[in-house]
Amino acid sequence: MLAQISSSVYVETGHLGSNNGIVVGDDGAVVLIDAPHKPTDAEQWATRVAEFGTVTYLVHTDHHPDHVIGNAWLPGTVVAHEGTRRRLLREPLSREYLDDLYAVIDPTAVDDERSFSPRLPEITFNDRLTLQCGHLTVELHHVSGHTVNTIVALVPEEGVIFTGDNVCPAGLPSFQDSSVARWFDALDRIERLDFDVLVGGHGEPAGREAIDRYREEGSALIREVAEGMERGRSKNDLMNHIRFPDRLHVGTESYAGYPDQLIELFQRRSVDRIYEDLSMDWSLANRLTAAAT
Ligand SMILES: [Zn+2]
Asked: What integer pLDDT is reported at residue 255 of this predicted model?
């Protein structure tokens, strides 16, 4: 359901995939944050957002399909970190992968050609970019963490931040494209920004306390991997056994979730990433698990 979270910012948390934000300027300009994952949701979203004004920009917080794919159905100039454009160009998802995925999550979209080619970002930046939206500004900050190209969008006049998957009140995301050390730095950096309402990549809007909860959840997982390593368990063994709750890709009453084997793959790759990052720099183990209580 679409919720108004400040006088000019709205968010839809009920789509499979990322949260989708709407920022409305007093001149009828609209900036969108992230796109629906399912083509059928994206089509309806295009109609819904048109009620708020004219979409000028569509911002992507990272390159993952659950944030990007719906952009083919939406208006607005696509804005993202330059690394997001690079990833989309260099590593497009295969037709086979998307066919299999849509057969489960959005069967009516399987035959729709557009679902397989998200629009590439037309405006990219490296460090900072500010978009104007009527009386509001949308400050985009590169905050590498969940992916190296993750950005956050801050609307200072409204005290609202969109953190992408750097913070997910719904639960931990996949770590497969993350740098574990940078992700924790990202949490510290987000904490230093000025806002009251936090819209994570997935899950309900929250307050600043969501950052601490997320840090603790992440620390607990990293500690589990670190403890396994200390006992001499192999990476494969840990990948086979360590599991954390996936609340981002599973189905709900209102939509079908990802196929089980993909969810399993994300878990394995997450443990793999954490293991590799700790192997390269064991001092991270102490630093990062200090937050787990
Ligand atoms: Zn996501």
From this structure: 86
> What pLDDT does 115 receive?
59
Query: CA 118, CA 41: separation in Å to the nearest integer?
Result: 15
Neighbours of 235 (CB within 10 A): 16
From residue 160, give the alpha-carbon distance in Å to each of 9, 23, 233: 8, 10, 43
In the reported structure, the alpha carbon of residue 168 is separated from the centroid of ligand 1 by a whole-number distance in angstroms of 8
- What interhelical angle do 209-230 and 180-192 show, nearest 10? 160
Domain ranges across the chain:
2-207
Task: Report CA(265)–ligand 1 centroid distance (Å).
Answer: 15
* Averaged pLDDT in 10-residue chunks for the chain of 293 residues: 96 94 98 95 96 98 94 96 96 83 84 74 98 98 96 98 95 89 92 98 96 92 95 96 88 84 91 95 80 54
Q: How far away, in angstroms, is 179 Cα from ligand 1 center?
A: 15
Q: What is the C-alpha to C-alpha distance for residues 227 and 271, in angstroms, rounded to an integer?
A: 13
Considering Cα of 176, then 180, then 184, then 190, what sign does the dihedral take? negative
CA of 143 to the centre of ligand 1 (A): 15
Say if CB 166 and CB 190 are below 8 A apart. Answer: yes
Q: Which fold has domain 2-207?
A: Metallo-beta-lactamase; Chain A (3.60.15)
